[in-house]
Amino acid sequence: MPSSFTDPNVLRRRLRGELRRVRGTSGLTQKDVASAMDWHPSKLARIETGTVRISINDLRALLNLYGVADDREISRLVALARNARRRSWWDGHRSVASTQLIAMLGYESSAAIIRDFEPVVVPGLLQTEDYARSIIAVQEGDRAEQNKIDALIDLRMERQEMFDRSDAPEMHFLLDESVLHRIVGSKAVMSRQTRRIREIAGRPNVTVHVVPYRSGFYPMCHTGYIIFQFTDPADGDILHVEYPLGELIFREAGSESSPDPRHISPARCLRIFEDVERFAIPMEFFTVG
């Protein structure tokens, strides 16, 4: 995994935001643009929502229409569009990785800060190979081909290379105590897994806290989630939520407008994570009975 990597999915989302911004500044509606560019009315909508990618020629034409005359600004947006078309490091795993996992990998690779809460199993970034093999074998079921299981394990181990990046993100892990007591694979596997967690927790950019049983029932204690924050504020925070039957991704834009205090959003889960972390025990002080 390269250093200083920003995943193309994140860059494409950034480009879409920039295009909406400059169009808004120009005062043109999507209908105005479609008419001026002689496009089908839906083309710009699909570009701005990410359904289709924009070519460099179309981008230059749009910027001209929007009145963007600053050469540096044009060069910046063209470079952004070009970088957004690059291949991701995980492209070779598309045959075995789900659409949700692919999206999560993009955010994980580009984040400046990662906060991961897990109520049931050890987070993927902390798993040993033996532990991961036991988990993935169960998740994939009895009919899963060994080649697919091996490929998913390789992918999980490759993700962990981010710990050795010169620009490794700030990472905070929050585990329910049950994660450390649940025997996955065997007692020997769990012993090695616990050692691995303690080793990673000793890194300067990593914290691992355990929420003890005595904490009782606390917000979101039944649901695993990951919050991704990025260096560029324009990228917004991303929330990845794990459910028994799948995964969902929430973006910050507009989510706080919901009047329902139970509404799931990156900002709400960030507050919950930080509140729970305050009464959790640092891994170096936690004893697994």
TrEMBL record:
Record-given protein name: Helix-turn-helix domain-containing protein
Pfam families (UniProt xref): DUF5753, HTH_31
Domain HTH cro/C1-type intervals: 19-72
Lineage: Bacteria, Bacillati, Actinomycetota, Actinomycetes, Cryptosporangiales
SUPFAM superfamilies: lambda repressor-like DNA-binding domains (SSF47413)
Annotated organism of origin: Cryptosporangium phraense
Domain of life: Bacteria
GO molecular function list: DNA binding
InterPro entries cross-referenced by the UniProt entry: Cro/C1-type_HTH, DUF5753, Lambda_DNA-bd_dom_sf
